[in-house]
Amino acid sequence: MSKINSIEITHHRLPLDPAFKASWDGRPRKQFDVTIVRVRDNEGREGIGSGDLMKGFEGHEDLFIGQDPRHLERHYEVLSHISFHYGRCWPMDLALWDLSGKITQEPVWRMLGGRADKVRLYASSGVLREPSAMADQAERYIEEGFPAMKVRFSSSSGGRGSWKADVKALEAIRARVGDRLELMVDCNQGWRMPWDTTLAWTFKDALAVAKELERLTVYWMEEPLFRADHEGMRRLSDATSVRIAGGEMTRELYEFRDIIEARALDVIQPDVALTGGITGCRRIAYQAREAGVMFTPHSWTNGIGVLANAHLTAGVGDAPFLEYPYDNPEWSEERRDYPMVSPLTHKGGWLELGETPGLGVVLDEERLRATRV
Fold this sequence. Notes:
Blueprint: E1 4-20, E2 29-41, E3 46-50, H1 72-85, H2 91-104, H3 108-111, E4 118-124, H4 131-143, E5 148-152, H5 163-177, E6 182-186, H6 203-215, E7 220-222, H7 230-239, E8 243-246, H8 253-262, E9 267-268, H9 277-291, E10 294-295, H10 303-316, E11 322-325, H11 333-336, E12 350-352, H12 365-371
Parallel strand pairs: 4-5, 4-11, 5-6, 6-7, 7-8, 8-9, 9-10
Antiparallel strand pairs: 1-2, 2-3, 4-12
Helix pairs in contact: 1-2, 4-5, 6-7, 8-9, 9-10
């Protein structure tokens, strides 16, 4: 019988030149940090996960060593306690699913229910480009087969200056591509980087933006208000035909339960690498389906996190799209997926998951040695 034999956590750093100017940060990112979690069993198999920094996990290894890795609900409960007391340790859950798939010789998407073996992607941009450059990027996405694109608005006054300037960029895209591309907008109001003390929009601000997005037939409006303003988001959803989306950094499953029960969001976006792992987010997906709320994960991590969210979405979900972080040249597939032997590649806007047992992650050990912190 398989038993967990060891757990290894390593940290890696890739220098970025040119820097990546993320719309939600404002300060150029000159490096990309990745945490890798490896769970090995007594028969030599290894499960791999990645996502948050695993702060607080050290010292709790004994809660898993000697356990059957396939007891995923048991491990979820332990991780939920660790994550309550310390940091987000959900990459461990991803590694356990990967290892369980290798034990059972099944891909994770099939273990989760097997609704599909591939997911439709939307291209998620991250850089605040000038309007014409944003339109150029949209055309490139169309040429590659993406059905939809997410456009970022400024998170604070350090971006384009105002939401009206952001709307100008959106107008340039719509004028160029017409209805050939669905457009989503991330308003970047739900949370802030630690250094950013800019207040979030008020309800009136968000409603004014929503009216502009209605005019431009935007598919959803993401994080338009502070994350705790459930009532404001419900009112906004009632006041506009644009879908209201959010939840990417929400920490607890019960918060999603409350959001779903209140119909505060039309689209919920948990990330398995940040909230609940695959085990917890599976529960959220079922709750959302019963309530008629769209479930489509956030996945702005590296390729391991993208794969994990894709397996969950394919296995249990009915999401029309899954987020695919991709904004050349600053956020290329090669940069995003540097821990892996080969970066993920889409085929005409689809990510095919195949029959490889587990998540299908193959690490680039040489690159990981060279980037280890």
